[in-house]
Amino acid sequence: MVQRLIVRILVLVPLFAVASWSSLYAPSIGAWVLPLREMYEALTIYTFYSLLTSLLGGERDIIFTTTGRAPLQLVWPVRLWRKNVDISDPPTFLKIKRAIMQYVWVRVIVTILQLVPGSTAHLILTVVYNISITLALNALTLFWVCLSSDLAPYRPWPKFLCVKLIVFFSYWQTLGLAILHYFKVIKDQDSLVLISNSLLCFETLVFAIYHIRGFPYSEYANRPELGRLYLGAAIKDTFGFADLMHDFKQTFVSARYGYHDFDSVEAVLDHPESASRQARLAAGLRYKNQGRSKYWLPLNAQTPKLWQNYGSIVSTTEPEQEISWAKDDIDGDEVFYTKARTTYGDYNYPVTIDREDPPYRTVAERLA
What we know:
elongated
């Protein structure tokens, strides 16, 4: 699993080189390779998130491990409009994951729309793309900072720089050159394309060297417990993106990130500053034995009272049903109330008392 994700990240470097070189020497080929590179950039962001998650044992282990920790204190001025981040809270974790994954699909859609001939919405698409990539970068950085101590044994900083440099450095470089072209520092569009792709051809060499150091093969070279695949099977495993589609469905469509779905058997109390503490209690979590054990209230115990929905009941727009006053119905009600008036009677459940029960006998009398 981890090796598959690492290979997906490493593929971006030669893809950058091929796209830049073909744009210089074979523009007709580069016109097809460049959109592919742009869409693969977004996939790399998600792949890096999946890599960090896999190194820590999965999403459930991350939430269980961080439960009870103090929320991350954000720096000023971010704290002015955003509360502290508690990654052990499943809804908060889901928001971070969605902010990362949305960039994959926004980038693909924006790239396809930009290929439409005669499109006049390039400015709008550029604004949408910038907002999307900013959210993804902030969410990925936030995820990395929240789990930096847990990721320390896996050397996350070189890996993070590899992804950040090749994706975001190239983006800001292209944006800077576009600004120079706007202010006529770079005269024409052909010069802009020439300078941008020439720089990337040299920079991909630096990126490749840094990726070798950030993702060394030696970590998996001498591990006999790892299985090996034939080349064809390995390629199919690496570029089969069924896991992406499944994860996208789980993140944006399903409702599996509730508090019940991420409940540990251990009775770990949330940090007092965590918003997850009150949210779990509202969802039905209860502690007992001075916090040493816990249990969940049944779902029907959390249903709202009748009076809370009374307004919606009386204001229904459904047509009123005709009330039947048939004699059989009235007789049935009378029988119901007659039985309910018996000893220990219940109007909601008409239990009848069997007066011919055998008399009570002790155990000794039954054995005699």
